Amino acid sequence: MRMIHIDSYDYDTMQLAKPVYDSRRRILLAAGRSIHPTYLQKIKELNIRSLIVEDAESAGITLDEMLDMPTWMDAIKLVEEVYTEVKRNKSISQITVKRIQEFVGKLLMEVRNRPIIVLIPSTALTPELIPYAHAVNVALLSVQVGTKLNYNMIQLRDLAIGALLHDIGKVIGNEENHPTEGFELLRKTRELKVLTTHVAFQHHESLDGSGYPRRIRGEEFLEVGQIGGIANLYENLISKEKYPPHLAMEMIMTKSENTYSHAVVQAFCNGVPTYPPGTKVKLNNGQVGIVYKIDQNLHRPTVRILSTMEEISLADQPTLMIQEVDQSIETV
Ligand SMILES: [Fe+2]
């Protein structure tokens, strides 16, 4: 299976590999079938932009690096419910904190089983759900970075909760003050740790003092704030700015030592692949292939050449390079 832009969907060659949901999180189209043009049009009208499909070219690619869809949707539901509660009560109840803690425990188990992580794009959902999907993806990335930095389970849990709620201040504030509003709200929530509240407070700060809301610099910018920041940046590049993953990764790498510490950037690069499985690529020898799996080297995947079905590990072939990426490549 692989991720595609909805405009690249081909009725004759592709089947849906993961379900499509509506804005109320109900299954609109189940996996396993081709999408009839009428339905395709309907999903496009809902502004869903990405699909996960199965086709001959991507056969054998399992995308195990992705969280399973029901767990992802449950996480989105939880975040949506917390937002609704904060909108109504301007506070988070003890019961809700308990639910968040329990769910994050489950999420941690899921993530810990995966050496690397590939995000389900939030653009696979309708725009109404994207802010919540964004929060969930930021949490998944944060846990991944924390794991690479050898955080223990308690640290990971507190980090994940902070990442899930990093933008909660937007419910009561605006773009400029949402980190402060979020921090104040979370600080009033007794059960939440300082570490959690600072993910929300600092996720827009920068080591060089150019961030907001406090323009802190150097050591004041806590590692958990940096993790929340780098995860937020990457997720926005992918979902909002429509960057392909390899360019988003390039951008992340330019942030080392000026926005985030080298250690945090390094940990990010060690947990997120440059080319997710299913990416179509053209090599410098002219061959066109599809990223088949990622094993020993996160940035040098195994590519299946489409004309011969031969599998080439770029980690073992130092002279071969990925020259072009994407669906615009003409296959021969
Ligand atoms: Fe934010």
TrEMBL record:
It comes from the Bacteria. It comes from Cytobacillus spartinae. Its EC number is 3.1.4.-. One of its GO terms (molecular function) is hydrolase activity. Keywords: Hydrolase. This is HD-GYP domain-containing protein. It is an enzyme of class 3 (hydrolase). Residues 132-246 form the HD/PDEase domain.
